[in-house]
What does this fold into?
Amino acid sequence: AMRFFKLQPEQVIVFHDDIDLLSGKIKTKQGGGHGGHNGLRSMDAHIGPSYWRVRLGVGHPGDKNMVSDYVLGSFANSASLSYLLCQLYLFLYRDHWRSADLYQIFI
It folds into this structure.
């Protein structure tokens, strides 16, 4: 898709889950490491690390041995998913992508 639309990595925005953020939190940044996230690891391998990331907080299961099942499973609490989607809508609605400096949003 990047070749077809002639995009540079800096023009790509990746939305991904982040267990290190509380459920419902949203943060943005450009570049960085994959932090063990397999999806970001794959993106880094294909286009490098300079793309934009929107980190969507999903919370941590509490035990590192439960992380894999937690992130690959479905949301146990649909209220958490609804809350996160509402926050994402507000984030996008506020048009932060046109801002000269993307910044963290604390909810």
